[in-house]
Design goal:
With 147 residues, the protein is mainly α. The protein contains five helices and two strands. Strands 1-2 form a two-stranded antiparallel sheet. Strand 1 (129-133) and strand 2 form a beta hairpin.
Length: 147
Amino acid sequence: METFPYLLKVNLAIVVFTTFYKVFYCKDTFFSLRRYLLLSMLILSALYPLVDFSRWMIHSITVTSVAVSYNHIMPEVILYNTPDTGASTATSVSLMTWLLRFYFTVACFFILRILFQAAQIVWFRLHSKSIIIQGVQIYQTNCDSRN
């Protein structure tokens, strides 16, 4: 499977699953259930583009009947084979390369952002005072974290 269509399908599935999660499970208090739900959504998002649905659609009676009815309604179109100059292929390849570079640039930006935020957490942990309240160790910082 090509890389760009796979990434597009995975990201579309993540958007759909995230919307589903926000609408139905955002206020849920069953944290372990939410954790398993989110993990299963990510796994399904990564695996569903690998499943081939075309075999199911070919054997579906509804899809076949719609195709037959459109065959009778739609006019016949004849396509002529023209000599290929190769310009369209080079354009589509460069566009695909550009889109992949853009995708990986954005992904690298967000990875760097996560690493920076993790470094901030470690820095706060190292430069904070440790307090034990009711048997729980808490790290107190002096900075205002409301901004």
